[in-house]
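Ticket #4471: structure export looks truncated?
Reporter: QA, pipeline team
Priority: medium

Steps to reproduce: submit the single chain below to the structure queue and open the exported record.
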Amino acid sequence: MLLVMIVLGLWIEERLGLAVVFSVAAVIVPCWPFVAVVFVPFAAHAIYHAGRKQSFSGVARILAIGAVSGVVILGCVIAVDFLMYQKLVVAAWNIVKYNALGESTGDNLYGVEPMSFYLKNLVLNLNVGAALCVPFLPLFLWSFHVLPLVGLRLGLPPKLKPDVASADLIAYCSGGFLWLAVMLSRPHKEERFLYVAYPFLLLGAAAAMACLRVLIWNIVDKHLSTKRLPRQGFLSS
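Actual output as written to the record:
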């Protein structure tokens, strides 16, 4: 989860090259390659932005950083495993082969749970954050896109603008929801599997809180404007 959180922070700061290195490390070093699912939106977003800013050279740079860092990090992991086991071992591939491609029971051997297992754990661990991360997108669109358009039609100046574009915010948070979709489809469930999604879900919850602030401010401001008394000067009779 820490590596995922670092990647998300670097991604938001648009330090894409360094974010690619950490994302590759997050997939290979813990020997849990399934975490690559949460980086699919990041990869698409990084390639798109690199291509938009620097054309082909930017895309080639991102792909080269990913390839080189993957070879170097995987080589180091294999070297350490060879030193410890005295044979060639690719632990990440063994995990995929056993859990996803195995003909036997695979991870189901360790127990299966219904979808409600993850939903209960989300509520217990994130509390209000679990409830806020779900409606963040409708709240964001309403607060920063619908309300300003309505105000513009009424001749009112815009009050607040979002720090990020809607498409960027969707990309930042989509990895967590993509991870949940994959994990919910798997029969074997563990609480620790949710940790990967927490940074993305909490970012969505924070965005939802910011949107609620805008909505409350608009409601309060509208109420006060209707109750506001006309100003009178000190010397008026």
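Status: closed, not a bug. The export was complete when the record was re-opened. Leaving a note from the reviewer for reference: Residues 3 and 230 are 57 Å apart (CA to CA).
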